[in-house]
Each structure stands twice: as C-alpha cells, then as structure tokens.
C-alpha cells in the first residue's frame, strides 16, 4: 500500500476538468474536440492518410470522416489523392487551418498557464517534463511496462 492515489485516479478528474475548460475556447473557434485533435495531429506530419490520422488520435477512421468533411468545407484542411495510390487521401493543414489551430491552442494554453501558475517554478518544470515523457510512451509500454 502506498501513500498516494493511483495515477488514473488523479489524472482522470484533472483531465475532465481540463476538457471542460477547453470546450468554451474550442466553441469560440467553431471546433469540436475531435476537429481540434485533427488540426493538432496534422501539424506533426503535414501529410498523412485518413487511416493513419484516425489511429494517431485514437478515433475510428469512419467516425472522423464527418469532421474531415467539415474541416475541408471550412477551408481548414485539404484532402488530395495520393499520387502513388489514388484510393488514399493525403491530408494537410491550410494556412487558415493553421491560424485557427494556433489561436485555439493559445486560448487553451492561456487557461493552462493560470492552473500551472499554482505550482512553484521548479515543480511546474518537473511536472511538464514528466508529463511529456509519459505521454510520449507507446500505449503498449504503459499497459505492460516491463
């Protein structure tokens, strides 16, 4: 028995509160949580298939099609046929998509800064380093960390 709660017991309520804080910012930008996840993921690799995108954000590939249609209709992303396989669509952010994503992210991170300001500087830096290191782990390593 340890003197701390389980990680999930601490992270889940925090995660829910962070999502609740993000929703008004996303609404201001006309984005759903899934649409925002798409815009963030496309920045990592400017071109990728819809299937790869869905896998990277943890969505079913058929479920994100509506979000992709909406983002494309609004001029935030482009979907172009892959020249090597016309059945595959390559995705990329438009300049407007990058602007909307950056503006939404700035609003979200501004709210996060107010929360992080409650921690002493050293704890804050350590928390962010640890969170980034854990978030970078592949899911299978988290499930079975041997």
From TrEMBL:
Example GO molecular function: DNA-binding transcription factor activity
Domain of life of the organism encoding this protein: Bacteria
Entries under Gene3D superfamilies matching the protein: Winged helix-like DNA-binding domain superfamily/Winged helix DNA-binding domain
Protein name stated in the entry: Transcriptional regulator, MarR family protein
Domain HTH marR-type as annotated: residue spans: 4-136
SUPFAM superfamilies membership: Winged helix' DNA-binding domain
Species for this entry: Streptosporangium carneum
Record-linked InterPro entries: HTH_MarR-typ, MarR/SlyA-like, WH-like_DNA-bd_sf, WH_DNA-bd_sf
SMART domains for the chain: HTH_MARR
Gene Ontology BP, a term: response to stress
PROSITE patterns linked: HTH_MARR_2
């Amino acid at each position: 028995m340890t003197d701390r709660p389980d990680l999930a017991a601490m992270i889940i309520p925090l995660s829910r509160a962070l999502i609740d804080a993000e929703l008004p910012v996303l609404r201001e930008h006309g984005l759903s949580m899934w649409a925002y996840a798409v815009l963030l993921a496309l920045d990592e690799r400017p071109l990728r298939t819809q299937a790869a995108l869905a896998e990277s954000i943890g969505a079913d590939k058929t479920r994100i099609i509506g979000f992709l249609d909406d983002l494309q209709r609004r001029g935030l992303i482009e979907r172009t046929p892959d020249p090597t396989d016309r059945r595959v669509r390559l995705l990329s952010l438009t300049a407007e998509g990058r602007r909307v994503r950056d503006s939404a992210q700035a609003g979200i991170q501004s709210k996060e800064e107010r929360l992080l300001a409650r921690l002493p500087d050293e704890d804050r830096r350590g928390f962010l380093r640890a969170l980034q290191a854990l978030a970078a782990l592949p899911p299978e390593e988290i499930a079975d960390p041997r």
